[in-house]
Amino acid sequence: MNPLISIIIPNYNHALFLKKRLESVYNQTYPHFEVILLDDASTDNSIEILNTYKSHPKTAHLIVNTQNSGSPFKQWQKGIEVANGELIWIAESDDYAAPNFLEQVAQPLLINKEIGLAYCQSVVVDENNQELYINTKWTDDLDKNRWLTNYANNGLNECKNYLFYKCTIPNASAVVFRKSLASKFPTSFKMAGDWWFWMNLLPNTHIAYIKDSLNYFRTHANTTRMSGNLTKKKLRLIEEVKVVSLIKNQINNRIYLKKIEKVYANYLRILPLKMLLFNSIKPYQFTDNSLNYSKIVFLSFNELFYRFNKKIK
Do 16 and 89 fall within a single domain? Predict the structure, then answer.
């Protein structure tokens, strides 16, 4: 018998996209799965939609928060903790999938116990389900050919050579992984927790990639990656440093420092000049509390960088 796969659907205010997501989950061709529906105190009519699936024979749980958790990754943890499946699929509530998604993406994990995570290529779609492009463009700056064919790799090698530089698994909805590997959760993260999760999980296993575009990755105004909010941009960069620091002991020190320096340069680049001049950014965000921000503009870049790197560890 095929192993049970637990499908976790964490939702927050995605009523507009929720029915399409749910239909794409419940109509999977892989036969043996359970569905865990989670809502993080939505203020739209998401609960009404979710309740229509509450009695579906595949629905194992419908858990509704009365207060927003503050992090989507707390919802990941909640879903995984109640899951009964050997394998996990976190199906984000604004995305959707091809009917054979589970059948194809779970296959490497079923035939090879050394594979702990498998993911497929994605098609990026807009709010109206119009297909915009295949998401190979996201990884073209690393390697234009690698993601055009199926591959398998040692997880630590994948982290050192690819994930260290950017989140090459850009959408959780494209991923199936073994529940037994999910022992730590980025519950303090708000932006880059998925990247942290893959980087924490993969050094202990192997990874497989399926070139077929079986996942539909939605972009719209409310997605975190689309936010032009300065506070969110800064938070993403701080979280990025925490992510790459996970494997700093396995990375050449010069390469690691170069990456951190690049992130820090991006951090400074997004700050408006008036914030540098009028001390409107709190010092603890990228230096020590004893340093008055008005002095930062007179420090060398290297001193700033090392203070920042020390602070975020």
Answer: yes
Contacts of 199 (CB under 8 A, 6+ apart): 159, 163, 164, 243, 244, 246, 247
Query: How many CB atoms are closer than 10 A to CB 205?
Result: 20
Strand, helix or coil for residue 151: strand
69 near 48, Cβ under 8 Å? no
Residue 94: other Cβ atoms inside 10 A: 23
Do 195 and 237 have their domain in common?
no
Q: At 235, which helix (H) or strand (E)?
A: helix 230-244
In 86-130, beta strands by DSSP E: 87-90, 96-97, 115-125
Tally the domains of the chain: 2
Calculate the alpha carbon distances from 142 to 46, 131, 138, 164, 204 in Å: 38, 24, 9, 11, 23
Asked whether the beta carbons of 179 and 84 are under 8 A apart, the reply is no
Specify the pLDDT at position 269: 65
Judged on CB neighbours under 10 Å (0-12, 13-18, 19+), 277 is: exposed
Residue 4: DSSP 8-state: P
- Return mean pLDDT, the chain: 85
| Gyration radius (Cα) of the chain, Å | 20
Does residue 201 share a domain with residue 111?
yes
> Which domain, by its residues, includes 201?
5-225
pLDDT at 235: 84
- Is the pLDDT reported for residue 284 higher than 70? no
